Amino acid sequence: MIEIRWHGRGGQGAFTAAKILGAASLIDNKFSLAFPSFGPERRGAPIQAFNKIDGKAIIDRSEIKACDYLIFLDESLFSTDYLKDLKDDGIALINTATPEKFSAFSQIQTIDANQIALKIIRKPISNTAMLGALASISDDVSLSSLQQASDLYLSAASAAKNQLILKESFEYFKEVR
Hints:
- Helix content is 37%, strand content 25%.
- The mean pLDDT is 93.
- By secondary structure, the protein is α/β, with parallel strands linked by helices.
């Protein structure tokens, strides 16, 4: 089972990203769960969202402790303590404009997702850019499925622009490697 934990702030779209990823997994003929964990909803408050993806039905609906991927929509939420939550071959994916701060850690990948979003939608909403990056660094979801699934959770105008964000962030890691 692939287990993903999203860290974001209220209003950044972490749970929306988890739902899009869950729907994309279904398109890829996998079983999936997407669920949030947050207290009183307010913009800016730290939240977590979770995905579980598997080739068979998922029975365990508990929060994820050992992660294949940790995704941080806001680098201020990251702490090196979270790295102990990664499985042996797990990856932390961090949205940051200063990747050099994380260069000492082999299990961390970085992308300036805010910059990609600003260029396309003129807002620093990084959730779909992080999804595209995830698709690029893993074999667990396809870009085309993410693009299809974005239509389910975003308005038509927003989905079209976010599909561009997905593609650009996906290609970012293809160029970096």
